[in-house]
Amino acid sequence: MSNGSFPPEPGRRGGTLAIVLAALIPACFAGWLIWSSLGGSKDDGADGAGAPTTSSTSSPSPPSSGAPAAPSSPTPSGKQSGEPSGKPLEGKVVVIDPGHNPNNRDHTSQIARLVDIGTEEKECDTTGTATNSGYAEASFTLDVARRARTLLEARGAAVRFTQDGDRPYGPCVDERAEIGNKAHADAVVSVHADGAAAGERGFHVILPKSVRGGGADTSAITAPSRRLGERLLSRFAKATGSEPAQYIGNGSGLDVRGDLGGLNLSTVPKVFIECGNMRDSQDAAELTDKAWRERAADGVAQGITDFLSE
Q1: 3-state secondary structure the chain
Q2: How far apart are CA 187 and CA 301, in angstroms?
Q3: Most buried of 10, 134, 144, 173, CB within 10 angstroms?
Q4: Handedness of CA 63, 66, 67, 71 (dihedral sign)
């Protein structure tokens, strides 16, 4: 052969092959073990047996904060939590002032003491009037006020009373005004019935006069109080069928006064309503009728609603 080489001897060639195979077999076996421990080729497990157990449609759960998750769907009423209720007087504060107190008659000396109403001094309170049959104004005012409260609360208003027959007497007229002021009332209505001469019929609304003196200053409330009074006048007439009184206010149904502590000391819109004349037999027949008092309460509630919805 060229270059002076010779073919290997048969014995030497077999020995070399055996040595090579002896080195390769352990290496291949070790590789197969490693391959098996890793789960085979990536084509194996296509049915998901070797895949992570987390579902493809779920997202990892965030760490718990300890607080309940916010609802993501509407409440059964169809409104998200915190939305307005849809009631017309939601968020409004109304103070109803039932005139006098059924217990005043038992505390005549206490209610006779004088209090400052800004422009002068007047009695803390009075017993009020009554029908010829003895039905007291204080009983009438509480009944109408409670009925009006039910109607106003159903419309979403927060209703507060100056008294609910739960006091030994009063409160005095200056405190009645202060209750409305401290409540930051959007409207205050003082419910009364008149004690005019027999034969005088009808209802009227009393508005605050613009006064300033002592602790009284109604300059800021005269205009809104007039609007409240006008709405009350219209709705009360419609609800009860009553006519505005002809014996006062020139038949307009509106009377302006500067001698009432409940109005003089008010800093929020406030009016009085005299629902009828207890000393007249025809008016008294209405005032003592439960169905009529329900209509009167509806007129009061609707007048307040109209004013607060402007």
Answers
A1: CHHHCCCCCHHHHHHHHHHHHHHHHHHHHHHHHHHHHCCCCCCCCCCCCCCCCCCCCCCCCCCCCCCCCCCCCCCCCCCCCCCCCCCCCCCCEEEEEECCCCCHHHCHHHHHCEEECCCCEEECCCCCCECCCCCEHHHHHHHHHHHHHHHHHHCCCEEEECCCCCCCCCCCHHHHHHHHHHCCCCEEEEEEEECCCCCCCCEEEEEECCCEECCEECCCCHHHHHHHHHHHHHHHHHHHCCCECCCCHHHCCEEEECCCHHHHCCCCCEEEEEEEECCCHHHHHHHCCHHHHHHHHHHHHHHHHHHHCC
A2: 11
A3: 144
A4: positive
Q: Is the pLDDT of residue 202 over 60?
A: yes
Percent share of the chain, pLDDT over 90 = 71
Task: Assess contact for 125 and 104: CB atoms under 8 A.
Answer: yes
Residues involved in catalysis:
274
206 touches 212 (CB < 8 A): no
The C-alpha R_g of the chain, in whole angstroms, comes to 44
pTM metric for this prediction = 0.74
- What's the rounded Cα separation, in Å, for the pair 306 and 310? 7
Q: Which residues pair with 147 in a beta bridge?
A: none
Q: What's at 218, amino acid-wise?
A: T
Q: Is residue 262 within 8 Å of 177, Cβ to Cβ? A: yes
Contact present, 124 and 172 (Cβ < 8 Å): yes
State the pLDDT at residue 80: 53
Residues in the chain: 310
Per-residue pLDDT reduced to its tens digit, 124-183: 999 999 999 999 999 999 999 999 999 999 999 999 999 999 999 999 999 999 999 999
Tell me the per-residue pLDDT of 249-307, one tens digit each, with 9 for 90 and over: 999 999 999 999 999 999 999 999 999 999 999 999 999 999 999 999 999 999 999 99
Residue 71's nearest CA partner among 82, 58, 87 is 82
Query: Do the beta carbons of residue 234 and residue 303 sit within 8 Å?
Result: yes
